[in-house]
Amino acid sequence: MTPTHLPGRVAIPSLPEQTRTPPSPDALEAFNAAPADTVRRALLACLHSPRWADRLADHRPYPDVESLLAASDEAAYDLAPGDLAQALAGETLPVLPEGVYGAAHTALSAAHAAYEAKFGHAFVICVDNLSPNEALDQALAGIRSRLTNDPEEERVVAAEELRRLAKGRLLDSLRGAGL
Description:
- By secondary structure, this protein is an all-alpha fold.
- It has one domain (25-176): UraD-like.
- The chain has helices at 25-33, 36-46, 50-58, 65-77, 81-89, 102-119, 132-146, 151-176.
- Helix 3 (50-58) runs antiparallel to helix 4.
């Protein structure tokens, strides 16, 4: 099944867009009013791209969360190859839920090593809104199937997954009012 949210020849199932509870209006106000350095640090935790973080921070204030998320998407889509490489360099292997059996850790670690050797960066996949077992299955299926991509196809897929991860992390950051 080819996912609808990813271009190219990708053999992983489509994942739902994030359906998190929106942050409070006060959280957006705090984001808009926080010092630029504070906002940039928080944004760099969402996506390890200074260009992306600067762009979102510099375009404040945002009238609503939807506008912030749209700006996040646009900035992520506009990342140059070097910016994308920098963002990918900051990512690590997806964390498996507690209680996952050792064989799964071994399988994911082995697949990740093969992925890193082929593409030169960490495997990224957004598994938001999935149960722990579904997330593990999705990560394993995704990494195995994406190993068949050529480097350009995988760059596009990885960029899309980073975009989705950044949106979820941004919502989590706002909800946590860490700004």
